[in-house]
Amino acid sequence: MKLYYSPGACSLSPHIALLEADLPYELVKVDIRAKKLENGEDYLKVNPKGQVPALGLDSGEIVTEGPVIVQMIADQATAKALAPARDSSERYKLLEWLNFLTSEVHKSFSPLFSPVLADDAKAFFKDRVMGKLKYIDGQLAGRDYLMGNQFTVADGYLFTMLTWGDRMKFDLSAMPNLTAYKARVAARPKVQEALKKEGLAQAA
Predict the structure, then answer these.
(1) The GST N-terminal domain covers which part of the protein (predicted)?
(2) Can you list the positions of beta strands (E) in the chain?
C-alpha cells in the first residue's frame, strides 16, 4: 500500500493506523499547495480531489477520505482491535465518533489554516473548535480512549487534530481529561514513530 501524505496534515491519522496495525506501506509525500509529488508528478492524477490522505492499494485502486481509510486499515488487521467488529453496536459507536470528528471538529479547524481569513472569523471558528473539544473532554471522563480502554482509529484522528491545536497555541488547561488523553496517545510508540517519520516534534 502507498499512503499519500503531507507532514502533520490529517493524513497523520491513517499513518498512525498503519503503524498500529503493523501493515507494510510506502509513504509518498505530497505538496498540497502545488498538487505535486516529490518526484514532480501531478498529484491530481492520483487523487483528483487534490487532498490527503489517499491510500493506494496493491490492486491499483485509490481510496480517499480519512475516516474510510482508517476503517479499511483496521479491517485488515482485526487482531489489533483498532475498530470493533463490523455490524456490532460498538462499530456504529466508532462510526459516530469518526463522523463527529470529521464533520464537527475537522471542518471547524480547516478555516484556521487559511492565510486570508480575517482574525474575527478565525476567532469564531476557534471558539467553535474549543466547544467541541470541551464536549469530548466530558466524554473522556473515566476513559483512557474515546471508545473506553481500547485505542482505536478514532483516537489517531483526534490526536492529529490536537497536534493542530498545539501549533495554534490552544489552551486546554481547563480540560484535564483531554490533556491527559493527549499525553497518553502521544506516548504510544507507534504514534511517536509516525511523528518521527513525518519530521514532526512530539506533541507536548
Answers:
(1) 1-81
(2) 2-5, 26-31, 36-37, 54-56, 62-64
pLDDT of amino acid 204: 41
Asked if residues 70 and 13 have their Cβ atoms less than 8 Å apart, the reply is yes
Residue owning grid cell 482505536: 152
Assigned architecture for domain 89-188: Up-down Bundle (1.20)
Quick: pLDDT tens for 38-77: 999 999 999 999 999 999 999 999 999 999 999 999 999 9
> Domain boundaries in the chain?
2-80+192-198, 89-188
Name the amino acid, one letter, at 135: Y
| Helices 119-139 & 176-186 angle (0-180, nearest 10) | 80
Q: How would DSSP label each residue in 68-91?
A: HHHHHHHHT-GGG-SSPPTTSHHH
pTM of the entire predicted model: 0.95
Cα distances from 94 to residues 78, 103, 172, in angstroms, run 15, 14, 24
